[in-house]
Amino acid sequence: MERIRVLSVFGTRPEAVKMAPVVKALAADPAFDARICVTAQHREMLDQVLSLFGISPDYDLDIMQAGQGLSDITCRVLKGLEPVIREFRPEMVLVHGDTTTTFSAALAAYYQGARVGHVEAGLRSFDKFSPFPEEMNRCLTGRLADLHFSPTAQNVQNLLNEGVDSAGILKTGNTVIDALLSVVRPDYVFDVPELQDIDYDHKKVILLTAHRRENLGEPMHAIFGAVREIVDRYPEVELIFPMHKNPAVREIAAAHFEGCDRIHRIEPLDYEPFAHLMAKSWLILTDSGGIQEEAPALGKPVLVLRRETERPEAVDAGTVKLAGVEKETIISMCEALLTIPEAYQAMANAVNPYGDGMASQRIVERIKKTLRPEMNAN
């Protein structure tokens, strides 16, 4: 029987992390002729994850250019994938999440008549400009997809509400849990000097990440101002901020964080040390999407520095709270967790809604069942 040709396409670090367990599961199953195409929308950060998980792409579009815009990325992915799809003739192109690579790859597959599988499908903020451009990347990819692999029941319901045929939807859990559980280990030692001297056992270490386009300017000033005030008020707090490469983020950080030896501004971390930093932290403040899924699996409360989230399940479960971008609100919510043990434990002990670490296997079995029903995959 001819093997099932599947092409997995991704281009950024978060995509690579979440697709790594899927491509590993495909490679381990003899039913598949599975190949990998990276767009390298984010070159350096992508390569770090490929090395960590031992992934060697079959195709590398290497599209990253200095100062690239969204239309540049879209056009280069479309044109770059065209000969790849024509040469390999995949029966399904797998994409992940909400990046410009995701939408462009799904569109390229559609143009070539290949079916599309969307991993992490059905997340919605219901505001097309926030997160931007991720919200519309997800929605547009959803219109092109044939199989929708949704992490949660709410994601499934979002797709049903949009008229997607239930036969093409599978609730899987989130593949990031598969990846995280495969990486974190108790004997890990940081090789970053700034992280080696912190007393994680006796200090309340807060991990901060902030980089979203919509938070640049006054919102980020409010966020960093709140964080500085919390560190100044509470001597037991140490703050670690892996800084995004964006110069605008770094300038605002310098304006607020200079002169405080308990605020550690460090360079961006590879996935493995970052996962362990999450595991060792006491509290996480973030405007990221993926961290809202990962941190609860490690028992870490998360305050989201955004006005809305496309991951409401974590809010409903109590592992995540929306802190917004107002200075006083952020301070108030941090103080509650710092001073009220019951409030902290309620978040830390809440059940993670994002799965059991078996999402990748469910995805692989569903592809097999759909494309080779005669194999009677279970």
From TrEMBL:
InterPro entries xrefs: UDP_GlcNAc_Epimerase_2_dom, WecB-like
Keyword Isomerase attributed: yes
UDP-N-acetylglucosamine 2-epimerase domain sequence ranges: 24-368
Enzyme Commission number(s): 5.1.3.14
One Pfam family it belongs to: Epimerase_2
Keywords on record: Isomerase
Molecular functions (GO terms): UDP-N-acetylglucosamine 2-epimerase activity
Enzyme class (EC, first level): isomerase
Family membership: Belongs to the UDP-N-acetylglucosamine 2-epimerase family.
Name of the molecule in the record: UDP-N-acetylglucosamine 2-epimerase (non-hydrolyzing)
